[in-house]
Amino acid sequence: MPPMEKDDISLPKATVQKLISEIIDDDLSFNKDAREIIIKAGIEFLMILSSMSSEMAENDAKKTIAPEHVLTALKELEFDSFIPFLEQALTEFKGTQKFRERRDSKFKNSGLTEEQLLRQQEELFKKSRSRLHQNAPLPTSGEASIDETESTEHAKQEPLE
């Protein structure tokens, strides 16, 4: 894949606008040109930080840029004041990752095959539909019920591999 031209790179305008809106006072506005300058500055900052982080990884004879490389690069670029905030954000992120891993391993360690888990899920859906139909009016003549439609659609689906 050929490298992107610098002009092809951008940040999501809506996200940048939301960040700006959260920071500035409600009685101030931010015009489009000012937002574009912030986007361009953000891109430039990210490119410099990425380049410096890459150098830090190379200095450690690593092929993957790790968080410590980014933090070292920030220090080299004299953005030391960012580091405590980013270390806290990294700690929080790692905490959410551990939660996800525990949740994923719960299914892996259940001792059930994927097919068995899918059957259990189908059974739960079936019970839910049953409860839903107990509270819903019956279909008029000529209309297929949800169960009939879903079972026909389900039969058309190919089995999971």
From TrEMBL:
Gene3D superfamilies of this UniProt entry? Histone, subunit A
The main place the protein resides is nucleus
Q: Which GO terms describe its cellular component?
A: negative cofactor 2 complex
Residue ranges annotated as transmembrane are: none
Q: Name one Pfam family in it.
A: CBFD_NFYB_HMF
UniProt KW keywords? Nucleus
Q: What spans are recorded as compositionally biased (Basic and acidic residues)?
A: 151-161
Q: Where is this region: Disordered?
A: 126-161
The Transcription factor CBF/NF-Y/archaeal histone domain extends over: 10-74
**A biological process term (GO) from this entry:** positive regulation of transcription by RNA polymerase II
Q: A single Gene Ontology molecular function, please? A: core promoter sequence-specific DNA binding
Q: Does the keyword ATP-binding apply?
A: no
- Cite the SUPFAM superfamilies for this sequence: Histone-fold
The subcellular localization recorded is: Nucleus
Tell me what this protein is called: Transcription factor CBF/NF-Y/archaeal histone domain-containing protein
What taxonomic ancestry is recorded?
Eukaryota, Fungi, Dikarya, Ascomycota, Saccharomycotina
